[in-house]
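Consider the tokenized backbone below.
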């Protein structure tokens, strides 16, 4: 007796997740809210490729960083030998596009983007190998006012999404000269205490000592807390910029903590750096981070142009939205079309299109491998869809050139069923929907 060989099931790559229909409403709520806020501040959408030249990220992020050294998905183009990388972050591509298309030629630009990023990290709650970022970049603005605007934009997003417990941490990392003076003292300090450094810190000591301050090793916390603080090395201009930022935030009641250990993981930052953090996601507490990157555009070969921006991980914010109380899943439609019989099916298609022409969302019942389904089973599906009304067509309705319209929700005239002439169904349903004071968010009628 032979056994039928079972086909092996293919599953998603580790750390790369499906967004299922049950979660789609939360994603849509986040994206719609964020896009509305960005637009209200004058930001315009930009879309850049998922794949860029590897050297773009090596130059922008810094060769001696975890992202470039360990986490990038890089490969050689088999057609021409180009070294390519799936983007690990959004800023580098946006800046490349700004330079390539001379976007800042006619003045400063406020830009926003969203899309998938890729890093080969250990998957954790809210942190994946393919993850989605929402970000904003303000190119060509030099003052602390634009830094404050981006921070206040984030606060408005948290408020509109109903998210609480997200704290703002601020720091200034000055300019290159100030960081170099601090760097020399920092190296000397850590060299004097080299026996307390872990292997990762020793590796970074001369290549990128600032990143040692960001260590999560509990045994090194006292050491880094006593290390020279970059804020003490800032010159007059950098201090004035930082004080200007804090003054605007204070005037607008934006609460913050100055964190002298906040350095950010990317080499292109200068002056303002900030993070929005929460205790609700375990170790992955940062939900949004950003800062100023004035040297970056010139590093890419463009004309010296200041820039500042932020990026937020959408998955982490979705986790917070769920914790804050996931909203009820919105209805699939306004009207569910129930029908039985070949002629009724033809008429149901015609009526469904007319209802959609009127601006309503309509689900038309279609057959499954089990068959078309009885009226009773179709009505169960109509009720489960969340529709406000079912429009019913059978042999009797076809013979009399009518359709039955049944209210499915409580309060809809006692969920009564009404026989309506076929050519009057659209006007009748629209009048029912817009003529009542509904609380149904699924109604999208537009005249």
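A designed sequence for it:
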């Amino acid at each position: 007796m032979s056994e039928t060989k079972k086909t092996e099931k293919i599953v998603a790559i580790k750390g790369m997740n499906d967004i299922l229909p049950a979660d789609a409403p939360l994603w849509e709520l986040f994206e719609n809210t964020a896009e509305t806020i960005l637009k209200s501040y004058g930001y315009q959408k930009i879309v850049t490729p998922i794949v860029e030249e590897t050297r773009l990220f090596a130059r922008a992020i810094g060769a001696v960083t975890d992202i470039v050294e360990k986490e990038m998905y890089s490969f050689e183009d088999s057609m021409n030998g180009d070294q390519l990388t799936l983007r690990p972050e959004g800023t580098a591509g946006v800046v490349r596009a700004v330079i390539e298309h001379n976007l800042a030629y006619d003045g400063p630009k406020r830009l926003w983007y969203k899309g998938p990023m890729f890093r080969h990290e250990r998957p954790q709650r809210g942190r994946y190998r393919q993850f989605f970022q929402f970000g904003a970049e303000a190119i060509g603005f030099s003052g602390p006012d634009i830094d404050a605007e981006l921070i206040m934009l984030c606060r408005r997003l948290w408020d509109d999404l109903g998210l609480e417990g997200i704290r703002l941490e601020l720091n200034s990392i000055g300019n290159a000269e100030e960081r170099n003076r601090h760097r020399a003292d920092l190296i000397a300090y850590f060299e004097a205490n080299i026996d307390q450094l872990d292997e990762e810190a020793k590796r970074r000591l001369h290549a990128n000592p600032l990143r040692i301050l960001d260590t999560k090793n509990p045994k090194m916390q006292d050491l880094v807390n006593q290390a020279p603080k970059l804020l003490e090395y800032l010159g007059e201009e950098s201090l004035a910029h930082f004080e200007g930022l804090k003054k605007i935030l204070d005037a607008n009641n934006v609460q913050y903590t100055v964190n002298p250990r906040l350095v950010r993981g990317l080499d292109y930052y200068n002056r303002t750096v900030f993070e929005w953090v929460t205790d609700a996601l375990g170790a992955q507490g940062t939900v949004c981070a950003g800062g100023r990157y004035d040297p970056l555009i010139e590093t890419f070969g463009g004309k010296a142009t200041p820039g500042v921006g932020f990026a937020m991980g959408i998955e982490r914010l979705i986790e917070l939205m769920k914790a804050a109380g996931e909203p009820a899943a919105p209805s699939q439609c306004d009207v569910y079309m129930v029908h039985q019989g070949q002629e009724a099916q033809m008429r149901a298609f015609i009526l469904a299109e007319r209802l959609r022409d009127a601006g309503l969302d309509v689900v038309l019942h279609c057959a499954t491998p089990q068959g078309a389904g009885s009226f009773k089973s179709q009505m169960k599906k109509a009720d489960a869809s969340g529709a406000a009304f079912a429009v019913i067509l059978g042999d009797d309705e076809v013979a009399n050139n009518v359709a039955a319209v049944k209210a499915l929700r409580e309060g809809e005239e006692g969920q009564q069923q009404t026989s309506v002439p076929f050519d009057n169904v659209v006007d009748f349903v629209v009048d029912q929907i817009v003529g009542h004071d509904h609380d149904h968010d699924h109604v999208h009628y537009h005249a």
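The mean pLDDT is 85.
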